[in-house]
Amino acid sequence: MSWPRTFIGLGLASLYTSTATLSYTFILWSIQPQKAIAQTPPTDTELQRLLEERRQRLQREGGLPTLELEPADPLLPSPQAPIPPLFQTPPTPALDPVIEFDTYRLGPGDAIGVSVLRFPDLSFQAALDLEGNITVPLLGRVPLTGLTLEEAQERIRFGLNRFIIDPVVTVSLIGVRPVQVTIAGEVFRPGFYPLNPPFVSTAILIAGGTTQQADLRDVRVRRILPDGSVIERTLDLFTPLRNADTLPDLRLQNGDAIVVRTLDTDDLTYDRTLVASSTLAQQQIRIQVLSYAGGGVGALALPNGSRFTDALAAIRINPDNTNFRQIALIRFDPERGQAVTRLLNARDAILGNPAEDPMLLENDVIVVGRNLVARITYALGTFTQPFRDILGFLLFFRQLRQGAENLFGPDQR
Start and end of every Soluble ligand binding domain (predicted)? Predict the structure, then answer.
């Protein structure tokens, strides 16, 4: 049979193939031994050498490409720049005086309501503590003093944005802190006053109203801004009274100063009677009365805006022992520092002559009795030194009151 020969032939062929394969493998391994060793990771020195060889080859072939670095994104903070604290107060920019007077800034004692849309658990109401902070859920204490409502709203929204994607925050003022202001100038009782509500008209009323020398066209409000600068606004309260318009009231802030300026004595366009009858003026005036018929010296309180005939009605002068044609009205002139005497005809005043019925001012003196008027006029004439102020003028008549027995005799009519 031929199959044994075939089997022997196949076996010899397989043996030859295996021997040849091993021979070639041994030859290749002998020629390139590094290829087998190259399976281990190269060292840093070898990598640097290979990179240097590659760089030199690229230079021979046409040069190295130039690496162009793109500028850094300006929106990304520099690694060297310090990161400001989350609620650090930024430097105050230059403030517009016109806008600043109408801007309300939060302070200790103010109460605000914070609403976070779709998150009722984060909505709350709180009052700023003595340091001007509030406690916000997830954020803790957040300083708000000196901020407007819009700035406070943005500060809280920025803080919550770390926990909520694009939170919608609304901040509203639900309680205003009481403020203390200074009131000076032509008001009845100048000084320091706490106000609530803090408006100019409220401040004037608390100070007892304006005096009869006040110019309501020139009421000035001064305010110190957070940057230390001082701004001022002038309010005209007289024109709205004359035209029956709404008063231009201004919301005051803590530390504001109100100054009511003095009226120019030569200004004839100012209606003192209208101002005296308003609620902005002092409600009562006090005048002094020297009357032989009345029995001496006395003080009389009258509503502001009262006239000479109103005082005559209050004095209840006896026509049988009074010269109605010569009743003296003595008034202090602050410009000259002197007492000015004006003789009035009471009969004409009672009959309706406005020239003989002037409006009375605070600290006016009415003298009833012809001889008494002469004596008072003589005493004022011999007093050569001018009065320094209204207090000196009043002191003069107080001394007359102490020596009343020398003024009021049986013939002083």
Answer: 181-231
